[in-house]
Amino acid sequence: MIIKINDTKPKIILCAMYGTQSNSFGTSQVNENLHQMFSQLSKYAGQEYCIILAGDMNLRLGTSDLEGTIDLPGNTNDLSKSGNLFRNYLENCELEIKNYMCESGDSTTFTDGKNRTKRALDVICANEGFITMVKIDH
């Protein structure tokens, strides 16, 4: 879902997402859904919009962006092909994962009950300069 708010300065694009689970629907469906969402968001990249993308992405995103900057501290290093595609789309739309800005320093939002592995499944992304703090309720 994408909401466009024009009567603010800056204008706001708010996108809420629940990511498709690849083990239920397959990687190709995950990638197609990412393509559809980011093709809409890309219309606003580089313009005077605050773009916020938030939700449960259901992706293995690793710990670092494409340049190697850690943006998901505490997350597993596991980066899936769809997670890498998501990160490429973020870069193309000039968006960054902002979980690293959380007060606790722990960007994860899920702990696997079986092996206690912590993951950042829920992420908040935005363009530069609009998000100053993130609160994650562990």
Give a brief rundown of this model.
By secondary structure, this protein is of the alpha+beta class. It has helices at 22-25, 27-41, 81-92, and strands at 2-5, 11-18, 49-56, 95-97, 110-111, 118-119, 122-127.
Note the topology.
Elements: E1 2-5, E2 11-18, H1 22-25, H2 27-41, E3 49-56, H3 81-92, E4 95-97, E5 110-111, E6 118-119, E7 122-127
Helix pairs in contact: 2-3
Could you explain the architecture of this structure?
The chain has a five-stranded mixed sheet, covered by helices on one side. Strands 5-6 form a two-stranded antiparallel sheet. It has 138 residues and is α+β, with helices and mostly antiparallel strands. The chain is built from three helices and seven strands, in the order ββααβαββββ. The longest helix has 15 residues, at 27-41.
Report the span from N to C terminus. 25 Å
* Helix count, DSSP H or I runs of 4 or more residues: 3
Label the overall shape. Answer: globular
Give the % helix: 10-25%
Main pleated-sheet profile: 5 strands, mixed
As laid out across the biggest beta sheet, the strand order is 1-2-3-7-4
Q: How much strand content do the residues show? A: 15-25%
Q: Give the tally of β-strands.
A: 7
Low-confidence stretches: none
**Helix-strand category:** alpha+beta
Mean pLDDT: 93
> Rg from C-alpha positions?
15 Å
SSE arrangement, N to C: EEHHEHEEEE
